Amino acid sequence: MDRAQKEQVVEELGQIFESSGVVVVARYEGMTVAEMQTLRAQMRDAGGAVRVAKNRLAKIALEGKPAASIADYLTGMTVLAFSEDPVAAAKVADAYAKTNDKFVILGGAMGENALDPAGVKSVAQMPSREELIASIVACIGAPASSIAGAIGAPASNIAGILSTLEEREAA
Questions:
Q1: Are residue 14 and residue 98 in the same domain, yes or no?
Q2: Where exactly are the transmembrane stretches of this chain (predicted)?
Q3: 25, 33, 42, 136: most buried, per Cβ within 10 A?
Q4: Three-state SS at 111
């Protein structure tokens, strides 16, 4: 890798560290190519990505970035999992770590906040952006459906009373 390629990698990593909602650092020593491809596919499905980079280049890219606190985790065979959604990468990484003992979460960063492995697990348990939007929409829609039910209730009560009166007259 020549100097120009290294500069390009540092710039790409810098963009990742600035634009990502969460960055998770994990050790992947001993994982097969198939296992890594499975992790990449799961991360892609969740809207995130996985990147293996030289630790030295990643440390250079971290200088002056909000996620600079993760530089201490960059030793040995490390992989970066990241996503714009502040929860997606942590959820996938945590779920994958449960199924594969070779994938060990070292920590991460959420903006300027450093995360230890327990912090990454806590972030993974938070609802995703889509889940939050769905619950907000449900909260907004609930009063409207209650109002519609309340408006429709007197009409159905009157219809029930009228049918009862008709049955009495017929009998």
A1: yes
A2: none
A3: 25
A4: coil
Q: Tokens 């714009």 identify what position?
A: 84
d(CA 146, CA 50): 45
The tokens describing 112, both together, are 């300027």
Assess whether 161 and 81 both reside in one domain: no
Task: Count CB atoms within 10 A of the CB of residue 8.
Answer: 11
- Please indicate, yes or no, whether residues 118 and 37 belong to a single structural domain of this protein: yes
Domain count, the chain: 2
Residues 134 and 108 grouped into a single domain: no
Predicted confidence (pLDDT) per residue in 91-126, tens digit: 999 999 999 999 999 999 988 888 889 988 988 888
Amino acid at 101: D
Helix (H, G, I), strand (E, B) or coil at 29: coil
Phi, psi of 103 (to 5 degrees): -100, 110
The DSSP string of 31-67 is: --HHHHHHHHHHHHHTTEEEE---HHHHHHHHTTSTT
Q: Which of 47, 48, 71, 46 lies closest to 58 in space, CA to CA?
A: 71
Model confidence pTM above 0.85? no
